[in-house]
């Protein structure tokens, strides 16, 4: 039996969606798409520039367009931006078209990974505001996910391998 046609990775900034997504796609023999990278290619601007110049609402519209395009593809692993779950339309698209994996990484680890990365939006807020955003989104991630995966002290390679195993097991059900 074939593995899920479209897989979406969701989670907070710094949870490893892009890195693990690339490895997972290769492991499953699928294409890989990073929605943030696609938006940057299409707009000619960084995500941060889009937020500053046009606001988050404009960025979210571009994100929905990119997600719809990804939903039309076959055999793909998609790394979603951390805020993809903020829009109900995106949640509907994910639910109807993707096998959704939530990378459930603790806030402290995400923050350690993204600290000082000026290319990311929302990092100019204080840590407490960022943690509140994390907590609010975590509920949305949990509701959107078909599978919740908590990477422990493992490499990106073994995380991707374990997720692939879970996906393949779902196919056997």
Describe the overall structure.
It contains eight helices and five strands, in the order E-H-E-H-H-H-E-H-E-H-H-E-H. It has helices at 17-28, 35-43, 47-54, 56-71, 88-97, 107-114, 127-144, 156-172, and strands at residues 6-10, 31-34, 76-79, 99-103, 147-149. The longest helix has 18 residues, at 127-144. The termini are close together. The protein is globular. The model has no long low-confidence stretch (mean pLDDT 89). The protein has a five-stranded parallel beta sheet with strand order 2-3-1-4-5, with helices on both faces. With 173 residues, it is of the alpha/beta class. The protein has one domain (6-172): Rossmann fold. The protein is 57% helix and 12% strand.
Write the layout of secondary structure elements.
Elements: E1 6-10, H1 17-28, E2 31-34, H2 35-43, H3 47-54, H4 56-71, E3 76-79, H5 88-97, E4 99-103, H6 107-114, H7 127-144, E5 147-149, H8 156-172
Parallel strand pairs: 1-3, 1-4, 2-3, 4-5
Helix pairs in contact: 1-8, 2-4, 3-4, 4-5
């Amino acid at each position: 039996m074939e593995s899920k046609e479209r897989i979406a990775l969701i989670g907070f900034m710094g949870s490893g969606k892009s890195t693990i997504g690339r490895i997972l796609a290769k492991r499953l023999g699928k294409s890989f798409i990073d929605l943030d990278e696609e938006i940057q290619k299409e707009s000619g601007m960084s995500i941060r520039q889009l937020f500053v110049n046009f606001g988050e609402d404009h960025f979210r519209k571009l994100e929905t367009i990119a997600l719809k395009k990804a939903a039309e593809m076959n055999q793909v692993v998609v790394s979603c931006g951390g805020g993809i779950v903020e829009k109900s339309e995106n949640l509907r698209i994910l639910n109807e078209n993707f096998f959704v994996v939530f990378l459930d990484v603790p806030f402290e680890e995400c923050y350690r990974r993204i600290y000082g990365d000026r290319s990311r939006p929302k990092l100019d807020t204080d840590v407490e505001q960022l943690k509140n955003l994390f907590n609010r989104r975590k509920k949305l991630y949990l509701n959107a996910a078909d599978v919740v995966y908590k990477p422990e002290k493992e490499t990106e390679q073994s995380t991707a391998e374990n997720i692939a195993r879970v996906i393949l097991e779902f196919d056997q059900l």
